[in-house]
Design a protein that fits this description.
The complex is a heterodimer of chains A (about 300) and B (about 200). In chain A, strands 1, 4, 5, 6, 7, 8, 9, 10, 11, 12, 13, 14 and 15 form a 13-stranded mixed sheet that branches. Chain A has a two-stranded antiparallel ribbon with strand order 2-3. In chain A, about 45% of the residues are buried. The two termini of chain A are about 40 Å apart. Chain A is built from 6 helices and 15 strands. Mean pLDDT of chain A is about 90; it is low at about 5-20. Chain A is of the alpha+beta class. Chain A has a single domain, classed as Immunoglobulin-like, CATH 2.60.40. Chain B has a single domain, classed as Multiheme cytochrome fold, CATH 1.10.3820. Chain B has about 200 residues and is mostly helical. The termini of chain B are far apart. The chains are: A alpha+beta (about 300), B mainly alpha (about 200). The interface of A and B includes residues 52, 68 and 73 of A.
């Protein structure tokens, strides 16, 4: 082996090591935030805004966010577990039963750990939670036992998105809602307009074998393709714990929210278990996600 | 003739008595006043008791059963509010006015306006709206016999309650603006402006 070959090998190793240190940030090393997702039944945005059913409607109309009432800012205590338990059991909320077909034995909520990090090119998100292990025997989505989706929105664009996160896309007239016969109508944002920047960015991990992740958006309708920002969505069930990792480019194309360090974005996510579909999911309240912004509910740290 | 008899009565009433001393008249009047006044108030207070309210099946089978499921009936400390605590003013003047108004309910009882569960449900919204309007007009006076913003330690409240009370203070709202249906079911078909 001559000297030049040794030098070249050494240079190669050096470059490889350099690339190694500059490569992917690790969301697993970011601070963990516990967010409980809960079973919402048929509680649509219309329900949220109906004062005779939801005592907080007045606050939401004034611009208060869901978590400003339902998560204690002194203790961090969440009301989501209580809500989920009541709704899934078919208990009345005022005069309305939010789940007309109560599901016996299914947990009302799931605590999820969310971690977020970013680097010069990407946002990295990790979601982990204990598998519910619930089997109803029905398979609404035969291909996917579990799905995890999250949505991002540039604050202030869509009415009630700042207050309710994804809730602003959930309406009484969409498929699987009680009494709705239309099986095609999916979630939408009021006055949603992709070209005008009024949309939610939608990303979804699907656990089914060979199932590709979704990079779409929700504007005047839901579109499950076309996004350019999602690089990877990977998940695994290890023991009794699901861990799902997303790698998403900070910038993308049409239907992708451009993420900039220092700014905050509306953020919400949902878990479908037991092959469920449509509204039969667990959802989070609306939160904010900030890149390098400690004021956000979920602080993506720079790595 | 009739006119003459009325004049005689009037004259008799105005003439000083020759039979009773002033002291007898004073003591007699005083005792009679106590008996009358005491009797009147006792009777009025009797109609303030929970047992009186639920002596009619119209109340016992409906709103009373709902109230029994609420914190105003049973709670950790054992301090409960009965029907009249919320629905009848405490001070005498307002109480008397309310009682006179409530005498219409006797007519309702006689004519059977809510004597079946179906009739009660059909009238629930109207009855509730009348009571909400009364409470709103008095700035929730009966609620405030026990509750006050000043006495509230919002630090000890759930986040939702704390935020709502702080917001209500800012917006100069009154208890009944938000606490409709706190002791009874909310009526079906309630208009959004009542929410």
């Amino acid at each position: 082996m001559n000297k030049s070959l040794v030098a070249l090998t050494a240079l190669g190793l050096f470059v490889a090591a350099g690339v190694g240190t500059a490569s992917a940030a690790d969301a697993g090393k970011a601070p963990a935030k516990k967010i409980t997702v809960f079973y919402p039944g048929s509680a649509s945005m219309e329900w949220v805004l109906k004062g005779t059913e939801h005592g907080g409607a007045r606050g939401v109309k004034k611009g208060d966010s869901c978590i400003s009432c339902h998560v204690d800012d002194r203790t961090g205590m969440e009301e989501a577990p209580e809500f989920g338990k009541k709704i899934i059991s078919g208990e009345k909320s005022k005069n309305t039963i939010l789940e007309p077909e109560p599901i016996k034995g299914k947990p009302g909520s799931i605590p999820v750990t969310v971690q977020a990090a970013y680097d010069a090119s990407n946002l990295y998100l990790r979601f982990s939670w204990k598998h519910t292990g619930f089997h109803s025997g029905k398979k609404m989505d035969a291909d996917n036992p579990v799905k995890l989706a999250f949505m991002l929105e540039e604050r202030g664009k869509i009415e009630y998105a700042d207050a309710g996160g994804c809730w602003a896309t959930c309406h009484n007239d969409v498929r699987t809602m009680p009494g709705v016969k239309d099986t095609k109508k999916t979630k939408y944002a009021k006055d949603g307009n992709l070209g005008g920047g009024k949309f939610y960015d939608l990303l979804q991990f699907r656990s089914g074998k060979g199932q590709k992740p979704v990079d779409g958006h929700v504007a005047d309708r839901r579109v499950m393709e076309g996004g350019k920002a999602l690089s990877e969505a990977r998940g695994e069930l290890k023991g009794d714990t699901w861990t799902v990792d997303f790698t998403r480019k900070l910038a993308g194309g049409e239907g992708d929210v451009k993420l900039e360090p220092g700014k905050t974005y509306n953020f919400g996510f949902a878990v479908h278990d037991d092959h469920t579909d449509g509204r039969f999911h667990y959802v989070s309240f609306g939160y904010t996600l900030g890149l390098g912004n400690a004021k956000a509910d979920i602080h993506a740290v720079k790595q | 003739m009739l006119n003459g008899s009325r004049k005689n009565w009037w004259r008799a009433l105005r003439s000083p008595t020759a039979r009773y001393s002033i002291l007898t008249l004073l003591v007699g009047g005083f005792v009679a006043g106590i008996v009358f006044w005491g009797g009147f108030n006792t009777a009025m207070e009797a109609t303030n008791k929970l047992e009186f309210c639920i002596s009619c099946h119209e109340m016992k089978d409906t709103v009373y059963q709902e109230y029994k499921q609420t914190i105003h009936y049973a709670n950790r400390t054992g301090v409960s509010a009965v029907c009249s605590d919320c629905h009848v003013p405490k001070d005498w003047t307002h109480k008397l006015i309310r009682k006179i108004e409530a005498s219409k309910e006797v007519w309702g009882k006689i004519t059977g306006t809510i004597n079946t569960p179906e009739k009660f449900e059909a009238k629930r919204l109207e009855l509730a709206q009348r009571e909400w309007a009364r409470m709103k007009a008095s700035d929730s006076r009966e609620c405030r016999n026990c509750h006050s913003f000043e006495g509230m330690n919002t630090d000890m409240q759930k986040q939702r309650a704390r935020k709502s009370h702080e917001s209500a203070l800012e917006d100069k709202q009154t208890c009944i603006d938000c606490h409709k249906g706190i002791a009874h079911q909310k009526p079906k078909g309630m208009p959004e402006e009542d929410g």
